[in-house]
Every structure is written in structure tokens, then in C-alpha cells.
## 1
Amino acid sequence: MCAKATMEDFEALLKESFEIDTPEEGSVVKGKVIAIEAGQAIIDVGYKMEGRIDLKEFANPGEQPDINVGDEVEVYLDRVENSRGEAQISREKAKREEAWDRLEKAYAAETRVDGAIFGRVKGGFTVDLGGAVAFLPGSQVDVRPVRDAGPLMGLKQPFQILKMDRRRGNIVVSRRAILEESRAEQRAEVIGNLTEGQTVDGVVKNITEYGAFVDLGGVDGLLHVTDMAWRRVNHPSEILAIGETVKVQVIKINKETHRISLGMKQLQEDPWDAVERAYPLNSVHKGRVTNITDYGAFVELEAGVEGLVHVSEMSWTKKNVHPGKIVSTSQEVDVMVLEIDSAKRRVSLGLKQTQRNPWEVFAENNPIGSTIEGEVKNITEFGLFIGLENDIDGMVHLSDLSWDQRGEDAIANYRKGDTVKASVSEVDVEKERISLSVKALGEDTFTDAVDGVKRGSVITVEVTAIEEGGVEVEYNGAKSFIRRSDLSRDRGDQRPERFQVGDKVDVRVTNIDAKTRRMGLSIKAREIAEEKEAVEQYGSSDSGASLGDILGAALKGDKN
């Protein structure tokens, strides 16, 4: 009977053990700490199962483990039984599963989560989010690059989840998003208390080439370089230093972008208010060259007032020259006020107007007909350019080089650097032109030679050269040419070779051209004229008498 009862009890216990649900592997179960030994906590997870977990799994990053005998904890059941017959459990995996559930809810609701940076990895940092490890990219640590992240390590602070993938175990968080949100709220509050035109104190936070950023107490404003002073400022560092406290005026506030424009010069008196009184038109003032460009030079008349000397107003004589070859930066110069536009804050200045017009000076010192001497500066296809006083030039046209030679031939006698004497024939101050003449200093042999000679006159010339097309002759030093067809009335005698150099020949003047300085001469015209005259005196064309008979009778009559 006893044996039978014992068997029944065993069957009941066995049946009871089968009816108890054994927890599934890979799930989170509750357990109780029953002992702590050798750096491990022994935990009874029920179901007649115990397991061991290293104490470090119960510690937060940078903290000591907080675990005592009797504490109830949730653990992750990896395996029901390992090689030692114990349950294989993990506190970290339990915390991770719990954390993932919590983080997924926060990600869906776009709410902040608390965490602590505990390690550095390539491209950023690792963050403990209460059991789950997230990646914090370096660009998401702060609104500005962080050189030393040491003070942030182990510090519990809020983060924003940017992206998470539970299957892959990836979480990306941002600390910058939290800071920007807080900063935006702070900016909105500060901006809400600012008004355009208000004067405030600020601290110079950063300096760039185009201006400086000024901290107005949680919000930055841009102080542009052009709003720092009325005068030209080449670089903000000339008048500002980082950390300096400055008084500025709020010029403009953009409510949408929260951008604030600041000014310093607006708190100073505008020198342009008195420009027209201080600088009358055509008055001369001393200034300092502040900037040189391709189109001119800027000259500072006083702090905040600059004028432009255009390249065309820099020199009377230096044309197409870069302004930098006429003036230099920081040079003091005398300038004349040519025009003022207060609305556009522009002053047009002249440098050359402070000196006398060199063409006027030349005209005063060298009246028409006076003789000058200068060096040949340039030779062109239409004449010579002669260097004169005060760095100006005069031109001798081809037609004014010689009385006897063609201009194209005469110019070949000159070279650059030759010293030339010439007569002043015209000075046009307005057009800045001086006309000179070399031939005016010599005798006009042609005019003297043809003095008293008229068209139709018969003159005696001397043959100086025989050519195929005719003969060259000279009359009182003036050269002329008789064409072959004009050598005789008879075609058979129109041969140049029948003449010799030195022969004296009577010719009839058919034309006098002062421009080409040539006389038109013809033996043929003289013979025809003589025949006509003989016929009129001694016979008629229908009398039957030949020209020989008429001329013979005429000669005979002359003898009698």
C-alpha cells in the first residue's frame, strides 16, 4: 500500500511538472537575486532554473553596479540549460529589449530620449540609451564643430532619434537637433524683444572678411564691413577684435529667417550731410589715395567721404595708362571737385584739372609760325610725331615734309630719335592737336619757279633725263615731265631718244598744279599753237599752200 502511494505521488508530481509552462528561449523573464559571488549575481528565474550574470551588466556607463541579494530583476533567457546545467541569461539583452520597445515608441512620437556618450568610434561616438547603443555622428554633436568631446562623456543628456532599424540593431541620434531647437526658442525670445532702430550692446564673436558676428545675448547679428564706419574699411580687424564689447544699432530683422543686420556707423554723424557745403564745385582739396582700380582711383577727402578720379581725369597726356602708374595707394594728391551727387553719395574728382592744360601752355609760348625743335617719337603711314615740352606731341603730315619730294619718299629720310626742326602751323587746344610743318622752314622752289608763268605760256626748259615714256625737264629748279605723246606733233618724232641731256627745248605750259607741284608741258601743244597762229597771219587752210610754204614765207618776211 505504501509502495502504491509512493508511485501515485511520483506520477502526480511528474504530471504537475509537465503542466507548468517552461519559458521560451529568447524571451524576457523575471528573476530574483539569491546570491552574489565571484563578481557574478546568481539569479533564480523560477521553473527550478538558476543562472549567472556578471555584475558589470547591472552598472550604467561610468557607474558602480547597483544590485543586492533579494532584488527582483528582468533578464533575457538565451538558453534553458547550458553545458553546466544552468540557465544562460543576460541582463544587458533584457535591458536592450526593454530599451528598444521604449525607443521605438519615442521615435514614432518624435520625442527626446535620455542617454550618455560613453565611447568614440570612427566618424562619431557611441551613446547608451538605457540599454540600447546608438551612433552619434560627429556632425550631430553640436551646432559648431567640437574639438574636445571630453566634457560630454558620461553626461546624461537628451538626444533626438534620427533613424533606427531594430532588425539590424542600428540607431542614429543627434544632440545638435536638441541644441538647435533650444537655440531657436532662445533666438525667438531675444528677437521678440528687439526692434529695428534699437541700440544694443553686443560682444564680437567672430570676424570674417565681409564683417563680424556680434552676440546679442543668445542670438547673433551680422555687422557688415560697410556698416562699421563711414570711411572705407578694408578688413573688419582694423577696428574690431574678438571678445570686444561694442554698441550697435539694429538695422533690420528678418522674422522668418531670424537674421539680424547690425550697424555701427549709424550711431555716428553722417559726414555726407555737409559734403556740398565743405566741397564746392571746382574747388581744389588735398586727399589720400585709398584704392586703385582699372577705371580710376578713390581719394579720401575726409573720414567717410571718398571721391573717384576716373582714369580719363587723371592726366592730360597719359592716355590708356593704368591708374597705378600715375598714383599709388596712400599717396597725397591735390584734386578738383567736378561733380557731387549726395543722393548716390558720389563725388567725381579730377587730378589733371589741378594742373594747366599743356596744349594751352604750348599755344601761349609758341604762336603760329614759330619754330620748335623736338625728337621723332613715332613714324606712321601719315606722318611724324614730334615730342614737345610738357610730354605732348605734335604731328608733321606727309604733305608738310618736303617741297620737292613726295611725302612717301620724304618720310623715308627720318628715323626714331632724330631731332627735327619744324614750324607751328596750327594748335587746337580743344582737340589736343598740334600741326607742324618741316617744309615751311625751307624755300618753296616750285612757287618761285612758276612765278609769272601762266597756262599757255611758252617757256624754255632743259632736258635732265631721258626715259622710255618721255623726258624729264627742269625750269628754274622746278622739275616736270613731258610725256612721249607730247614730244612732237608728228608721230614719227615722238621719240625720247632724239633728245639729249642738256638740250634746251621750247614748250607750252598746259597746266600748273600747285598741289602736286608739277607743270604740264607739251612740245606738241606749242607746235600746234604756232601752226594755228601762222595760218591766221599768212594764209588759210583752203588756199592750197602747205605749212612749209607758209612758214617759209613767214620767215622770209621776217628777214625783210
## 2
Amino acid sequence: MSVQSAAADVDVDLRQLFASLARNWLRILVIALVITGLALALTWLATPHYMAETRLLIETRESVYTRPDGTNNDDRPILDEEGVTSQVEVISSTDILKQVAQKLNLSRLPEFDEAADMPVLSRLLVVAGLKSDPSEIPPEERVLKTMREKLNVYRVEKSRVIVIEFSSENPRLAAEIPNAIADAYISVQGNAKTESNSAATDWLAPEIADLTKRVKDAEAKVASYRAQSDLLMGGNNSVLATQQLSELSSELSRVRANRASAEATADSVRRALQNGGSLDAVPEVLSSELIQRLRERQVELKTNIADLSTSLLDNHPRIRALRSQLADLDRQIRNEAEKIMKGLMTQAQTAQARENQLVADVNTLKAASARAGDQQVELDALQREATAQRQLLESYLTRYREASSRKDSNYLPVDARVFSRAVAPSEPYFPKTLPIIGAAFVGSLLLMAIVTLLQELFSGRAMRPAAGARFERIEQVAMPVARHEPADIEEADVEGAGIGEAGLEEFEDRAETEAEPEAAAAAQATAPAIGEDVEPARATLGEVDIDKAVEKLISSGTARAIFVSPEGDEAAASAVLVAREISDAGLRVLLLDLTASGAASRPMLDSGLFPGITNLLASEAQFSDVIHPDLYSDCHVIPVGTADPVRAMRAADRLPIIMQSLTTAYDLVVVECGPADPQSISRLVGEGTEVFLSMLEPDDEVAQAAVELIESGYPDLTLVTPIGHETPGTPVPGRRSAA
């Protein structure tokens, strides 16, 4: 009987288990009191240690009265979280600890120098070679090592407060050392600022002297170039040639406008005279005073003619005289208009001449302005260089004066201050007698209770038989020799391979009487006959080989085949061979390896390092990552995997979903469960499932596994053996591998 089966037949009697505590209460109490007494003695003999702390605040100490010009309170440097952490490392640095050790002369105290007053036990350990000799280490390093062990420097979370804690056997030293460390840190920071300020003044002095010379040279170059280029400046801070060019351009535009206006007016007067049109539409003609008087005389004559025409005829001498005068006035007006036209033409010619002169002057000034522009660009570059040098010099002078004043007055505030100094503690922080004694008493009680329970559990006194447990002795039966099935076995024999309660009884009877020839003959007599051949005893017990198992699965259209191998890894070959045979028949087959050692998948993949079902259950991989092809057939394999089995089994409830998905994708899913119990395979069983019990030898272990499976609701169990099966290209299964 296997250990797993035996363990399933007993239960823990909790009443008997916890009753052992009442039976052994005196022993538990005595041992607890002894341990508590030892703890009390240790706390009484232990050297008391005192702890004190000093608190520093990292902040800007610059005041509004000493702050340099051009800066305000918002410009001050504020240390971030990393900066404050860096200051913690500075405080616990070797240089500061050395200063404190020398100042307080800690090397003379045995507490900080183990070699100064070494206990006898320590000397014996050094002589025996079990402990290093502290005298081989320099005294300074021994003191620093002890100080680091007793020192604790940390930053208060979400603040710029640094706490310096120190523990010592002397309460006075517990307060003096953190205060000395804080003072040394502030002194070091002040010296660092002084050195930085001195370095700044030492660097600025020669830089200022050099910049002063460069500023003089740059300004001299500007003046010299301005004199050589003859760049005269006009209004609006512009070059004179450019300013003159602008003025001539404006004059040229005005002259061109006047010329165009005179030519247009003369042309309109000419057209009016040539076409005999009215001159009243020409403004220049109407503006003439002479023409205005002639027009007035003309209007007067026309009025007289109109008055006389009422009483006289057209050929009257007087009317004829008036009309003659009117015609003479028209000739005078036209003559005057011609004079105006000639004057406009003369004005246009004069404007044209002025325009030509201005164009020549503008062209001359253009060339001069272009040369002046190039010279101005060079001059501007020299001026910018001189201005930049001057500004840099002024900036350096301002900083140098500020640094010099701070150096002379020796005022360089440190960005830290001690706001809580350590005081000598009155009570030690170690040892705390009551907490230690209480913890020792409670811990010893719990420890003794656990030891008592484990003793009771391992002795077997707290175990009782489980309900319905069966402990039957089954003799071991030798495995029959390999044989070949007759070629004319009918289909009905394969279907009769499944065993029920009657078949199981025959299997147990055969197991008890295998060695007796008479019983073997009786079993052979009860076997069904096929034609004239006699069925061997194996078929009587419902035992089939790989070929019959394959034929049964293909003919029944089974979707899932669950293989249980109570004999362990050696019997896992049945699932591998069945999967390969059905895959070679043309069906889509997948083998799922649920053994602990990967006995089914390892020979199919030649490795156990592929991701598999544990990775899928642990959500570390997907289906496409865990399905691998068999190296020797068309079958697909899901190995055990590489994930943590404990983590994977937490998601064992996902197995039915995974089985349903695989059943949908494949024609047959073969599951090798190893020596699993019926409760374990219940998650894998579904519609269209066949359960097989793989066996190598019909011993008591196989019989017990068959009994459990049948009693758990699998009466159609089928026994299958890989013994004697050979597959071309595949090794014959042995006792140490699955394929």
C-alpha cells in the first residue's frame, strides 16, 4: 500500500492531540519558568546602555540684511530629499568621527577600544584562533568601528531634520558624543564655505585684472575704427549718408509727383483746345484771373444780346456788334488757355530736370550708404564685444566685492543649526527587564506547547482510523511476460476491457492465487473464448495493451483520456505511447503532463526546462507559450513547466477551464496524472472522458488504486500496460523512463 493511500486512511484526533497539553502542563510550566529565570539573570548581568539624540535642521541661514544684492528669499538653495540624505552621510563620515574621537579622547576608554581591557574569555578565543586579535588593527580604526556600531544617523521622513543617535554605557558620553558630532559637522560646513569663498576671491582677482585690460582694448578698437571709417552720425543715431539718402528719396518722390501732375494738366488743356471742348472742366484754366474776367465779360455780352433780341432782329447792327465782341472774347480765352498750357509744359520740363538731378544724387548716396552700412556692421560688432566685456567685468567686480567683504568680516552662515541638543539620559534603553522577561515567558510557553503537540502527533497517539478506511493485505504478483495479441481479436473484446466491481474481484483473486497452478487454470477456464483460441489470463482481468487502448479511444470518439500511474514515473509510458499512436492515426492530440517530475513530457521534448502548465496556472505564460511539438511524432505536449508549483496550485480551480479550452482545440486530450488520488482527477473529468490505470505489475499498489477509483465513481476504469509495445523510431519503455 502506498504512503499516500495509507495517509488517506487515518485522521488526526484533535481532542487527543490537545489533551497532551493538559497531561504535560507541569513540564511545560517548569521549562518556561527555567527559561524565564535565565532571561532574568541575563538582563540582571547585562551592562546597561544609554541613548541620547541631537537633532539638526537643514535650512538657509542667510538673513535679509546680509543677502547679496539682486537676490531674494526665493532664490536661496533648498536641499531636496537627496541633498538631505547626502548630509546624513557627511555627518557619519570618517573625518568627523575622527575629530570627535580625538576631541573626547575615546581611545583611552575600554568601551571603544576592545584591546585596552579585553575579557578573559575573549583572550582565550584569540589564543585558540576562534577570534581575530583586535590588537592587530590600528587603535584609530578600532575606535571608529565601535563608534559606527553605536552611532545611528537618519533623516526624519518628509522633513529636513537629521537625528544623531548614540548609545553608550556612560550616560554622559551618550549625550556628549552626538553633541560633539553636530558641532563638528557645523564647523566642517563653515570651513567648507570659507574655503569656497576664499577660492572664489582668489579666482576673481586675476580674472578682473584680465577683464579690465580686455575692456580697454575693446573700447579702443571701437574708437579707432570709428575714426578710420569716417562714420558721421546724423539724427536718430543713424549714419549721415543714410540719413541724406532718405531725405533725397523723399524729395525725388515729391518732384516726380509734381512733374506728373503738370504733364497731366497740360495734356488735358491741349485736348480741350484741339477738340474745341469746354475749358471750364480744367481747374488750372478756371483759376486764372484773366480768364475769369473774360468769362465775366462774356456772360455780360450774352445777357445784353438776349435782352436786345426781344426788340431787335439778328441783323441789327447793334446785335451784330455785340456778337463780334463775344467772338473776340472766345479767342482771348483760348489764347490765354494756350499760355497756361505752355506754362504747365515748362513746369513739367523743369520738374523733369530736377528729377534727373535728384536721381543722380540718390545713386551717389546709395554707394556711400552701402559702404557706410558695411562699416557700421563692423563697428556694431566691436561695440557688442566691448559691451559684453564691460558687463562681465561689472558682474565680476560685484561678486568680488561681496566675497571680499564676507572674507574680511568672517561671516559665512552655515545652512544648518542644532535645535535640540542631547542631554544625559537618566534611564537605560537596554535592557528592558519586564518586556524581556514577559517575552521569554510567553515565547517559552508557546515553544513548549508546539514541541509537545509535535511529539504527540509524530508518536501516532493522536491519529485515529478514518471512516470507511480499508486495510487489506494484497500479495505482490509477478508481471506476466510480454505477449502479442492475436490478429483476429474482435471489437467486442476491446469494449469489454473496462472493469467494474466483478472485474475488480477477479483481479484481486488473481493477485492472491497467481503462484498456484490450480488457480491459474481455474481463471483460464473462466475466460471468454474467441473462436478456438483461449484468451490469456490478462484479458480476463480487463487488462489491455497500447493498441487496444488506442483502438478504444478512436472508436468511441473520446475527448479526454485520464491516465493514473500508481507505480510512479515508470508507468507513465502508457500515456505517451497512446498519445503518439493516436496522433500517427491523423487525429489532433495533446498530452498534458501533471506529474511532479515531468516523466511524461521530458522524453518527448528531451528537456524539462520548457514553460508548461505551472506557468499557465501562475499567469506567467499563455497557451501559445506552453504548447510544444513532440520531437518524435505529430503530438503536442504541455510539460510540467518551470514556475513555482505552490504558486501554481493556488490557481488549481482554473484547470476545468483549461481542460475545456484544450478539448475544444484538439480531438483528444491525454492527461498523465501520475500516482494521483480520485479527488485530484475530479477537476479533469468532463463529458466524454475515459479513465485509464497504467500498470507495469499487478501488485497491491495497483489494486488499491483501482479500488479507490471505482469506489470514487469511476466504475468503467480500464487497465492498460505498455509492456511489450514497440513503436518504430521510439525506444521501448523501460523501468526508468516514460518513453
